[in-house]
Amino acid sequence: MEFYLKTAKKRHWLLVLILFVISCYLPYLIFGAYPFANKTNATPDEVGLLTQNVSLPDFYQNNLDEITAKQRKLEEDAFTSWDGGKCRFCHSIKRDDRDRMAPNLYRILGKPAAVSQNFTYSSALIEMRKNGLIWTPETINAFISNPEDYIPGNRMRMEGIKDPKTRELIINYIERESQ
Ligand code: HEC
């Protein structure tokens, strides 16, 4: 007992230290997030090289169909809500939004994979950039329907979205918010 009391203080500090280390690791473990990342993943020139031989539609010509407020709400809910894609939980989407624990998705359509700034990507996603993956409605659709299947070893901790209608709403929302 006496020995316990003598050494308790040290052990309590050790416990506090262990808890601190675990709590630093949890965001990575659960969400795949690296705090304080401030990396340049690709310069504008490098992005230009990655897209120079690819013919893509201009996703931002502002020629999307007008939609009703109800439809707009459906799209937003699909992106934000817990029953939908939960994308907003990890990703910001507005142009000047701060990065959340995942890259901002503003104007992601037409961009090569893994080129946003201030984010530490998994080597799986960086490999896909080198293999020429460009984000389009089709590739995003394939990715979010089964992330692990589409890019094995990626760090987006999300189950695939099985419902094609929800995926379509999400992708429409991403495009509309980027105009
Ligand atoms: C639990 C957090 C989380 C959720 C929920 C989530 N993502 Fe992600 N997402 C990430 C992380 C982390 C990465 C980076 C993955 C990597 O580096 O392997 C990522 C990467 C991406 C990328 C590639 C970005 C790039 O710059 O190459 C796209 C596109 C994407 N997510 C779309 C979505 C969409 C759409 C949804 C909703 C259906 C969604 N994500 C839900 C965390 C999340």
Write the topology of this structure:
Elements: H1 2-31, H2 44-51, H3 69-80, H4 87-90, H5 123-130, H6 137-145, H7 147-150, H8 164-177
Helix pairs in contact: 3-8, 6-8
Low-pLDDT windows of residues: none
Discrete helix count: 8
Major sheet: size, sense and barrel closure? none
**Which word captures the global form?**
elongated
Radius of gyration: 21 Å
CATH superfamily of the largest domain: Cytochrome c-like domain
Helix and strand element order: HHHHHHHH
Number of strands: 0
Overall number of domains: 2
Which bin fits the share of residues in helices?
A: 40-55%
The amount of beta strand, in percent, is under 5%
Instruction: Give the CATH topology of the largest domain.
Output: Cytochrome Bc1 Complex, Chain D, domain 2
The assigned CATH architecture of the largest domain is Orthogonal Bundle
How would you describe the overall organization of this protein?
- This protein folds into 2 domains: 1-31; 38-177, Cytochrome Bc1 Complex, Chain D, domain 2 (Orthogonal Bundle).
- 50% of the residues lie in helices and 0% in strands.
- It has helices at residues 2-31, 44-51, 69-80, 87-90, 123-130, 137-145, 147-150, 164-177.
- Helix 3 (69-80) packs across helix 8 and helix 6 (137-145) packs across helix 8 (164-177).
- The longest helix has 30 residues, at 2-31.
